[in-house]
């Protein structure tokens, strides 16, 4: 008995066509052929079923392969050779660890040198090369509405002195204006003087306060301490904190304001 190459049903060996599906059975194996997945005999390449064992060729037949047995005749390494190999491996590991440690040390030194060079290139002690009463006061007035940058210690204290001198000058000017006002309109002179004094005080206070913010950024002092300015003795405490020297542990702020940096970056990209 054979099996139909198409439907896999049993048929007589002398049947050339399957009586069930009517497919012609290929007997000539001179054409292209393939091995059966179960019995490994040669069968027509288009056969769905093996005509000899009836196995469906779409189903993979697993054949377990015996594991290789260890070769007892293989010579084992000598104990002395094993010790030498182990020692060489240990020496190699120590050498690799030493090279890795030296490489990490070298990388850290290079990073420190790079940070130091970047700090020296990015920051000076003050924005003005030669801080003095005039240039520092002018800088403080120019940056009266900027808080997103640093202000060096020397620039701040020269500017602080200059703003106090300006306040004294404003008080003298207010007194002169008051005298003239009193002669022309004595009833409203008191009110006018109060307005002038408050405006002068607020203007000077604003310039000093924003300068103090920039000084705190330069010394990397938390800005929350500026809340003390609202208290009586708090202003003195903030001024004492402003004596702290410059600290550079981050590069968030420099002597160039963040808005100016963004504008410079935009101009570069436009080019």
Automatic annotation (TrEMBL):
Keyword Coiled coil part of the UniProt annotation: yes
UniProt KW keywords: Coiled coil, Membrane, Transmembrane, Transmembrane helix
One Pfam family from the record: DUF805
Transmembrane parts of this sequence: 156-173, 193-213, 225-243
Superkingdom, natural source: Bacteria
Record's GO cellular component terms: membrane
Coiled-coil ranges per UniProt: 89-116
Listed name of the protein: DZANK-type domain-containing protein
InterPro entries tied to this protein: DUF805, DZR
Signal peptide stretch: none
Residue ranges annotated for the DZANK-type domain, each copy included: 4-54
